[in-house]
Design goal:
By secondary structure, the protein is of the alpha/beta class. It is 21% helix and 30% strand. The chain has a single domain, classed as Rossmann fold (3-Layer(aba) Sandwich). The chain has a six-stranded mixed beta sheet with strand order 4-3-2-5-6-7. The protein has a three-stranded antiparallel beta sheet with strand order 1-9-8, covered by helices on one side. Helix 3 links the parallel strand 5 and strand 6. The longest helix has 18 residues. The structure holds inosinic acid (IMP) and magnesium ion.
Length: 180
């Protein structure tokens, strides 16, 4: 697996530091509020686990699994729910936890979906942001690290289902990708 890596783009130390800062902000902003963190499977799990341990206020958590990519590196724009959340978010402060916002189509879909269920508000926290690829105008309230227009893996992010367990955010050798 490591032999497929061309470059470490964001180190595990940078990721940890970023999660810490975000956790501190979230702890302040949501103090005294009933907050539900919703992790987006599967990519969001690694960041989710880091983030919640940097949050010092009580919280609820749940997960949703959506699919938009298949084995390609581009968003199809069609988002499909594979597993929905179990809990009722009516009146709660919802915070969507994403690995990476790229076109923004997934986040747009998720924000609209949850807003339709009567929460107090719906915000988003993402580990990584690739703003150069944005296709929809969407607000991201808590952004971790801004990255350039490169297809990355590791820290939960996959290519064809692989590489999620790499601890750093990496760029693969061009020979490993079909087309990006
Ligand atoms: P969007 O709908 O285009 O914003 O894409 C959102 C999802 O696509 C992210 O949550 C990732 O799971 C996946 N994705 C986008 N860019 C990358 C990448 O560079 N590497 C791996 N997955 C990516
Ligand atoms: Mg994702």
């Amino acid at each position: 697996m490591v032999e497929d890596i061309q470059e470490v783009l964001i180190s595990r130390e940078q990721l940890k530091e970023s999660a810490k800062k975000l956790g501190e902000r979230i702890s302040l902003d949501y103090a005294g509020k009933s907050v539900v963190l919703i992790g987006v499977l599967k990519g969001g799990v690694v960041f989710f686990a880091d983030l919640i341990r940097e949050i010092t206020i009580p919280l609820d958590m749940d997960f949703i699994s959506v699919s938009s990519y298949g084995h390609s590196t581009r968003s199809s724009g069609v988002v499909r729910i594979i597993k929905d959340i179990d809990i009722d978010i009516m009146g709660k402060h919802v915070l969507i936890v994403e690995d990476l916002v790229d076109s923004g189509l997934t986040l747009r879909y998720l924000k609209d979906l949850f807003k339709g269920r009567g929460p107090a508000d719906v915000k988003c926290c993402t580990a990584l942001d690739k703003p150069s690829r944005r296709e929809v105008d969407i607000e991201i309230e808590y952004k971790g690290i801004i990255i350039p227009d490169k297809f990355v893996v590791g820290y939960g992010l996959d290519y064809g289902g692989k590489y999620r367990n790499l601890p750093d955010v990496c760029v693969l050798h061009p020979s490993k990708y079909e087309i990006y």
